[in-house]
């Protein structure tokens, strides 16, 4: 139980309690879908509905025993992994260019790079579909990876640009004067210091790809079905609690990644604070 | 390498960033091997730009820079073999102190053991031998700057550039570091080009000082020559305090010029710039070159003045005097030399030797 500071007046107590209640309601609202779906994955019943007659892990057995679901999980991880790598490279290179003092039309280019975040995903998906169809990249892993990298790159651009703002460009000049060429300087001096930005941007990009269904609807052939795409297919055909089990697994993976982002940011803030 | 040959040469250098205004108008500068040369000037005078051109971070719009007889224009900064110390230290925060200093050696593929040994030696030189395993962020500003100095010297560069390296330090530390850098220069015999806007720093540290203003070198000389024999009013006023009195030339003879001042007195002075008789001139006299005595009538090179105020500084007193023209004259009087009555309103005769009054354009 939360203990209230005894020195508070009555009206102050009321306002503290009211704040707590409001906060709890907001959290409840945000968590409701998760709270509903997770228990359903542990039902013994074959219906995706409450009340739950008995607890069981049978749907997890179905999930991990199913080639279809395992392939979807593998596809999701595979596509998200390579899309993330690509987004990290593109986003970092773009940020380095954008923060150099003599880059022309900085604002416009930055805006352009961030459009995948702003434009409704359905638009990106349709556009990608028509464009990639011409190149023969629909129904292919490469197509999915490229399309997801496109969605993830803006996150890397944002986080890396933020870390680069605190980076002292005289360090680059110092490295040159000490005999280090531009490319080794980038890897030995710049990258180690903007690493937190690259990693947290990469984690965002990974989560984006991992959760993504709309682009997958357009671009993925049955071979490339990711977890969300497979769930989408499954919901229309047969609704059983395996979906809930899949959702729980996805929530878990996303949670781990988000905690990872938190950890990386907390660590880099600590390093920054240590500097002063 | 002969002593009379220049080691660093700026030849007809011009620099513009926007294609219109020249930040550096026409720079010609020769620096001999082993010299400690300071580029001194107010901000925006072109001194830092000159240093960046020499470092290779900027390209001259026109002209050529030579190092040891070789043109540098097409040599990228990482091949110039020039050490640089920045005002904000620019140490690598993700490396230890020793790794920072060893960096130029590892880049040059020096063996690990040798690199370590040489880095440790450089660290000892700046009296931070025990700090090798720390990270730069754990050290004070002065310590960080010493590490930056060690890093700029460890690879035996031909030339070391220092861009206002002491600007971020407090006064006491700055004075310590001035002496330390001076000693390093004397011990290693390395050529140093130092940029500062602090005239005291320039005078105490340098073999030679180039005074910059408005993209032009106003005077390039030894500190003593600059201070005692400034060649124009900018140099005279930028270095130390000086009195400037307006007047016009009466006649000239043997390097001496007779000048009639606005207050009516006629003064014999040293002619610096070529003048025609009747030309306007500015007479520059250092406050410490002025003697004060009670006014008992005219004397050669004596100005009739009235004491406005006396500011006591301990070792000396600064006396502000008014001339009949309304101009003010400042004089420095050593503590033991206060012979005259310096209460405000008192009449005082201010005298000086003709060598100490310089008639500038």
Description:
The complex is a heterodimer of chains A (276) and B (361). Chain A has one domain: MetI-like fold (Orthogonal Bundle). By secondary structure, chain A is mainly alpha-helical. In chain A, helix 2 (58-65) packs across helix 11 (242-275), helix 3 crosses helix 8 and helix 6 crosses helix 8 (182-211). Chain A is built from eleven helices and no strands. Chain B has 361 residues and is of the alpha+beta class. Chain B folds into two domains: 6-234, Rossmann fold (3-Layer(aba) Sandwich), CATH 3.40.50; 241-360, OB fold (Dihydrolipoamide Acetyltransferase, E2P) (Beta Barrel), CATH 2.40.50. Chain B contains eight helices and 20 strands. A six-stranded mixed beta sheet of chain B has the order 6-7-8-3-9-10, sandwiched between helices. A five-stranded mixed barrel of chain B has the order 11-12-13-20-14. In chain B, helix 2 packs across helix 3, helix 2 packs parallel to helix 4 (141-153) and helix 3 (112-125) packs across helix 4 (141-153). Classes of the chains: A mainly alpha (276), B alpha+beta (361). Chain A binds chain B through residues 168, 170-171, 173-182, 184-185, 189, 192-193, 274-275, and chain B through 55-57, 76-84, 86, 88, 90-94, 103-104, 107-108, 137-138, 148, 151-152, 155, 161.
* Overall tally of structural domains of chain B: 2
Query: What is the number of independent domains of chain A?
Result: 1
For the CA atoms, what is the radius of gyration of chain B? 25 Å
What is the name of the CATH topology of the largest domain in chain B? Rossmann fold
Give the overall pLDDT of chain A as a whole number: 87
Which range best describes the helical content of chain A: under 10%, 10-25%, 25-40%, 40-55%, 55-70% or over 70%? over 70%
Structural class of chain A: mainly alpha
Q: Order of strands across the widest beta sheet of chain B?
A: 6-7-8-3-9-10
- Specify the CATH architecture of the largest domain in chain B: 3-Layer(aba) Sandwich
Element pattern of chain A in H and E = HHHHHHHHHHH
* End-to-end distance of chain B: 39 Å
CATH architecture of chain A: Orthogonal Bundle
């Amino acid at each position: 139980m939360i203990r209230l500071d005894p020195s508070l007046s009555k009206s102050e107590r009321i306002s503290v309690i009211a704040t707590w209640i409001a906060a709890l309601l907001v959290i409840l609202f945000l968590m409701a879908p998760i709270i509903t779906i997770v228990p359903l994955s542990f039902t013994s019943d074959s219906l995706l509905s409450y009340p739950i007659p008995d607890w069981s892990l049978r749907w997890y057995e179905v999930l991990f025993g199913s080639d279809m679901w395992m392939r979807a999980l593998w596809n999701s991880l595979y596509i998200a992994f390579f899309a993330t790598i690509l987004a990290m490279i593109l986003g970092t290179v773009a940020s380095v260019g954008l923060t150099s003092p003599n880059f022309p039309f900085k604002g416009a280019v930055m805006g352009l790079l961030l459009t995948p975040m702003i434009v409704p995903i359905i638009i990106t998906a349709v556009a990608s579909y028509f464009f990639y169809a011409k190149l023969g990249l629909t129904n292919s892993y490469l197509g999915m990876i490229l399309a997801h990298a496109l969605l993830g790159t803006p996150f890397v651009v944002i986080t890396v640009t933020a870390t680069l703002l605190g980076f002292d460009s005289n360090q680059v000049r110092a490295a040159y004067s000490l005999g280090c060429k531009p490319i080794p300087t980038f890897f030995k001096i710049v990258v180690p210091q903007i690493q937190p930005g690259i990693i947290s941007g990469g984690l965002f990009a990974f989560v984006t790809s991992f959760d993504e269904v709309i682009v997958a609807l357009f671009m993925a052939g049955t071979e490339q079905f990711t977890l969300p795409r497979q769930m989408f297919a499954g919901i229309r055909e047969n609704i059983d609690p395996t979906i809930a089990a899949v959702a729980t697994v996805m929530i878990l993976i996303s949670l781990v990644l988000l905690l990872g982002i938190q950890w990386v940011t907390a660590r880099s803030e600590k390093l920054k604070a240590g500097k002063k | 390498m002969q002593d009379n040959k220049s080691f660093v040469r700026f030849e007809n250098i011009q620099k513009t960033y926007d294609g219109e205004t020249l930040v550096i108008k026409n720079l010609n500068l020769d620096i001999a091997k082993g010299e400690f040369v300071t580029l001194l000037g107010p901000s925006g005078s072109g001194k830092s730009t000159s240093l960046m051109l020499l470092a290779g971070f900027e390209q001259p719009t026109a002209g050529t820079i030579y190092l040891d007889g070789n043109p540098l224009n097409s040599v990228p900064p990482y091949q110039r073999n020039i050490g640089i110390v920045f005002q904000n230290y620019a140490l690598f925060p993700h490396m230890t102190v020793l790794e920072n200093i060893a960096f130029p050696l590892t880049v040059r593929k020096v063996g690990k053991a040798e690199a370590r040994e040489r880095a440790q030696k450089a660290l000892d030189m700046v009296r931070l031998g025990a700090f090798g395993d720390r990270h730069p962020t754990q050290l004070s500003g002065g310590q960080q700057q010493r590490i930056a100095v060690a890093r700029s010297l460890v690879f035996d560069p031909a030339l070391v550039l220092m861009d206002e390296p002491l600007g971020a330090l407090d006064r006491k530390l700055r004075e310590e570091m001035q002496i330390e850098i001076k000693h390093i220069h004397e011990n290693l015999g390395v050529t140093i080009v130092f940029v500062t806007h602090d005239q005291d720093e320039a005078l105490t540290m340098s073999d030679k000082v180039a005074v910059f203003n408005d993209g032009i070198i106003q005077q390039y000389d030894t500190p003593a020559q600059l201070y005692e024999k400034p060649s124009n009013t900018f140099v005279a006023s930028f270095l130390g305090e000086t009195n400037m009195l307006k007047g016009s030339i009466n006649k000239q003879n043997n390097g001496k010029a007779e000048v009639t001042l606005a207050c009516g007195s006629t003064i014999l002075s040293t002619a610096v710039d070529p003048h025609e008789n009747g030309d306007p001139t500015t007479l520059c006299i250092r406050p410490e070159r002025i003697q004060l005595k009670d006014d008992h009538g005219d004397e050669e090179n004596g100005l009739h003045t009235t004491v406005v105020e006396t500011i006591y500084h301990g070792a000396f007193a600064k006396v502000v005097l008014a001339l009949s023209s309304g101009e003010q004259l400042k004089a420095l009087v050593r503590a033991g030399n206060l012979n005259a009555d310096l209460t405000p309103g008192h009449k005082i005769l201010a005298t000086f030797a003709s060598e100490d009054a310089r008639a500038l354009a």
